[in-house]
Amino acid sequence: MERPIFLVGFMGSGKTTWGKKLANAMGLPFLDLDHEIVKHIGMSIPEYFALHGEDRFRTVEREIMQQQLGKTGVISTGGGTPCYFDNMDWLLEHGTVLYLKHSPKSLWNRLSNSDVNKRPGLKGMTGDDLLAFIETKLAERAPFYERSSIIVDQINTPLEELVNLLK
Ligand code: S3P
Questions:
Q1: pTM for the full predicted model
Q2: d(Cα 27, Cα 106) in Å, to the nearest integer?
Q3: Directed axis angle between helix 127-145 and helix 104-112, to 10°?
Q4: Is 27 annotated as a binding residue?
Q5: How far is the C-alpha of 54 from the C-alpha of 46, rounded, in Å?
Q6: Which fold is adopted by the domain 5-166?
Q7: Alpha helix locations (H) across the chain?
Q8: Between 148 and which of 55, 57, 99, 120 could a Cys-Cys bridge form, CB atoms 3.0 to 4.6 Å apart?
Q9: Ligand 1 centre distance from Cα of residue 109 (Å)
Q10: 50 to each of 42, 63, 90, 162, how far by Cα in Å?
Q11: Which pathway is this protein engaged in (predicted)?
Q12: Maximum Cα–Cα distance for the chain, whole Å?
């Protein structure tokens, strides 16, 4: 069976949107890890963070990630998934890991136009505060993302090119 393609990248990098497009173009199933977590915990991720804290969330996230063992298709992960425990080793061991790379400014543009309250880490931040947060957090997380099997500049890579890279 084909190994799955795991999409990784910062919040707002388009993992879910592109994951769906990619799966569609390749005729593969699509699965969203955050969505699977929400089904499992029975509440939204911000609610879970508020009730149980981030450490518990990361433990559940890891469990749900490992439950995907043996699945095929395109699987989008959460922005923090590869950056905790040895999750990145696990992802690389079990699939092809694709990093949708953006600059902090590009992420800022995209996140400024999204509902920041849906993302617990962003806590309603806007403007310069949001940019500073992205710069700091991306610097922490980039070393994990950069270990991916394939790294693409998401803005300038047409979908067809991505499909070819993954064939
Ligand atoms: C998180 C990103 C979210 C979600 C959770 C934590 C993060 O996923 O897993 O809110 O720490 O970056 P998206 O990257 O899909 O927003």
A1: 0.96
A2: 29
A3: 130
A4: no
A5: 10
A6: Rossmann fold (3.40.50)
A7: 15-26, 33-41, 45-52, 54-66, 87-94, 104-112, 127-145, 159-166
A8: 99
A9: 17
A10: 14, 20, 28, 37
A11: Metabolic intermediate biosynthesis; chorismate biosynthesis; chorismate from D-erythrose 4-phosphate and phosphoenolpyruvate: step 5/7
A12: 46
